[in-house]
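<backbone_tokenisation>
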Amino acid sequence: GLATTPAMATNAPPKKQAPWKGFVAGSTGAMLSGAVTHPIDLVKVRMQLYGQCVGDGVAGTRASVASSVSSSSAISPPPGMMRTGFLVVKHEGAKGLYKGLSASLMRQASFIGTKFGAYDLLKSAMPGDRDANGALPFWKMTLCGLGAGAIGAAVGNPADLAMVRMQADGRLPMEARRHYRHGGDALVRVVREEGVLALWRGCAPTVNRAMIVTASQMAVYDKSKATILEVSHVKDGLAVQTGASFMAGIVAALTSNPIDLAKSRLMSMKPDPKTGKMPYSGTLDCIVKTVKGEGIGAVYKGLIPTTARQVPLNVVRFVSVEWCKKVLHAFE
């Protein structure tokens, strides 16, 4: 039952799979899982932006009143996941939970599709020894994951930026809101108002985060799956894939949260109205300032929704991708 997915070929040198199949399987699986977990993602972004530096141009909102005294003593603890979700629904209606969905689907298709396609491609191109099942050693899978993450993130950054901005919009005062109509509108307006390169703002943390998440997700998934199959002798199927993707989700949540927090803050920041200076210069600067201002636990703000999102997201995504691969496997 090992050779059910192209990822797990038999010990013959793995059959080169058409690269478009990995891309199509990745995109389809990603869009399905993205739509399912979008509300949790929105809540996560809102929690991460809570208590941010006041230079973000959000003066007047309750969050910035709390953070206007930038010493850590004055910041009230962020509301929890359920409470944040409740506040979004209360102030913006149930529709508010799906803000930025079009951009999210754009991001899933471009970023995650590319990531899965690139990972399969890199794995089949990787030189050197494989084990009896044609699987690579763990460190090589991790390398493939790092590469695939970087490629996917660079392709998907514009849609990612649009999604973060659309999700964050509801917490700005009316006059500061960007009011993008949908993902495409956001991209067009960013180019018009801020120049083409602004689409890749926050690209460094997106790439960093994607490399770490992809390496931990993909390598842990492949390794857990191989281990489960080896130890339990069950046939590869839903149960095995769910177990492996559950592990992948937990590892990805723990590794990505600090970088993810920096990414949310860097993408949604606005220059200080007085000095025109941006509050953060980059990923590391953002993480350092956050720890200084809000304590070390602050980089794990939103960890509960991150985990609550990563686990079902990974399960739905990997299972959908495996299913799509199986369907596409019939097409030669």
